[in-house]
Amino acid sequence: MSEETLRLVTIGRIIRRRGRLLTVLALVGALAGYGASLLFPPRYTTSASVLLPGAWQERELLTQAEIATSSVVVDRAAAALGWPGVGGGALRDRVSAETTDGNIIRISGTSDTPERAQQLSDQMVRQFVAFAARIAGEDAGPEASAGPEELRRLVVRTNRRITELADSAGDGASVESVQARTELAKLRTALQDAVRKVEQADSTADRAHMVVMGPAARPTGEAPPTRAQLVAGGALLFFLLGVVGHLAAARAGGRPRTEREVAAALGATAMGTVGVPVERAARRSGGSGAGSRLRRLLGLDVRWDAPAPRTFDDEAGLRTRYRRVCARLHGRAHGARRLLVVVPEGDELARRAAGRLAAEAGGDRSPSPSGADGPVLRVVGVGVSQPVVPDREADEAGALVVLSAGDRTAAELTGLAEACADAGHEVVGVVLAEPVLATRQARPAGRPGAEAPPALAVGETARGGVG
């Protein structure tokens, strides 16, 4: 299975087992988005288009778009609108211009009401067209402002003069003929310059004549982000933060889960995994306080990263796993009469597994293959924050650690192993306890002591299991 598949499975498990918490986070995010929408009033945006006739390069169109939102145009629009307390500086952030295909510049305006947005866009277009026409008139110069009619008259006179010279000039054999032909060439050059000026004047006139493509339409909906978008965005953001927070917590926790990982953290040998029958309701942590009720309501009383409990139909098969662990302990005891069973405090599954393991070891006194009886298990509960393990007795072969997989960090397991070493115990093995769901057909059978584990105690006077 690829890492991507594992990641998707993990996200699916988070959503399935933390659905209530994620739902609450999404509701909180929706409320936050609604509060943000109250801080930002609704905005309405509309636009009007201006057509620029003639041939325009892309760079020139971009220049015209910059002119459309320049401070001069915005200030003139603000003065024409005359809105109280709204000047050019306030409008500068509410207008924009962009170029589109076909030499069209679209000017957009945003305001707090549809009517004002429409008025702003229309006024910006009018002021831009007027300002662009003024710039075009100044750039044309006095010769272009004289109009194309005067240039046409110049062209007519020049053509007439050329015709006269051509008629009076000879074949070029005399000096007078050469001079006439030279004059004719100069006049033709002047004619070409005149025609060029006429074309430039016409092009300037065409460019100065911009076309407004209708008034701006009155907007019918709010500009994004709308209130609905803010509410939906807040809910989605908090939901994703909840999922990412679970993933980050799982990665930062670094809790060993497999037999090999737990055994490596304790520096011991994995003796196996045993099942502890639980009811579906019993999987949830107890407690009657307000905090416990809130945890149950949000689904925090069940770990999301723990694998789903397996079901079992045969009590005999469940006992077989305990007996196999006891058989392995026979070989690790080295003829000693006792073993210390260390259970982390607060680990209910491990406590029940250790009690049943002690009962199985005490009830089955069959000798090992070497001829010696198996050791008696003494169960003690040890705190994990500051672990203190009872000192080793003369007839004890070491310590057996029983705990739930993924319930403790690697640092906590290392501290537990060091506490065993300080007390003179060698950690001979590790047994993992996992919850299993009992079906209605399968109910614990056998001796009453099999599901009635002895009470845990700490100290030399405590004796768990069968003595």
Automatic annotation (TrEMBL):
Q: Which residues cross the membrane?
A: 21-40, 230-250
Q: Which UniProt keywords apply?
A: Membrane, Transmembrane, Transmembrane helix
Q: Where is this region: Disordered?
A: 443-467
What are the Low complexity biased-composition ranges? 443-457
Q: Which InterPro entries does this one have?
A: Bact_polysacc_biosynth/exp (IPR050445)
| Stretches assigned to coiled coil | none
Q: What is this protein called?
A: Polysaccharide biosynthesis protein
**Source organism per UniProt:** Streptomyces durbertensis
